[in-house]
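lol forgot to send this yesterday, sorry. struct tokens for the thing we talked abt
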């Protein structure tokens, strides 16, 4: 699911389906009279969330209290920040591991950059000749 709402034609009618809890998708709503986008607005008298048109007097009750959803995915790759030129870094340890791409025998190695409980100590090798990253 993306962080931004998806556009859908609603024709001013509620979908009739119950709102999904947790991962519900927020959709744009459009006026059934003039086809402009509806804006969320609070009805303080009836304590309800409404979608109202800013151009005409059309309004409809919201079927969900969620008007915006921002999903943040924080996944760091195991080789995040590693470039092919790390092979020329004199401070990294070197190994005689054979590169599967160019079959050279000199490579630098480093530990996985991912820090989580299920990630063990993985070593990644970068070929000094071609820059290929392998395990």
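and heres what i got for the seq, position by position
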């Amino acid at each position: 699911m993306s962080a931004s709402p998806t556009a859908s034609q609603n024709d001013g009618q509620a979908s009739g389906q119950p709102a999904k809890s947790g991962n519900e998708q927020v959709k744009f709503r459009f006026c059934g009279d003039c086809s402009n986008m509806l804006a969320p607005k609070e009805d303080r008298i009836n304590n309800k969330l409404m979608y109202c048109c800013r151009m005409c007097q059309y309004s409809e009750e919201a079927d969900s209290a969620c008007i915006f959803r921002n999903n943040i995915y924080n996944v760091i790759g195991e080789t995040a920040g590693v470039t092919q030129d790390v092979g020329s870094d004199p401070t990294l340890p070197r190994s005689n591991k054979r590169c599967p791409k160019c079959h050279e025998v000199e490579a630098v190695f480093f530990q996985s950059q991912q820090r989580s409980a299920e990630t063990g100590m993985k070593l990644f090798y970068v070929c000094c000749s071609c820059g290929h990253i392998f395990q």
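The beta strands are 39-43, 48-52, 59-61, 94-95, 107-111, 123-127, 133-134. anyway ping me if u want another try
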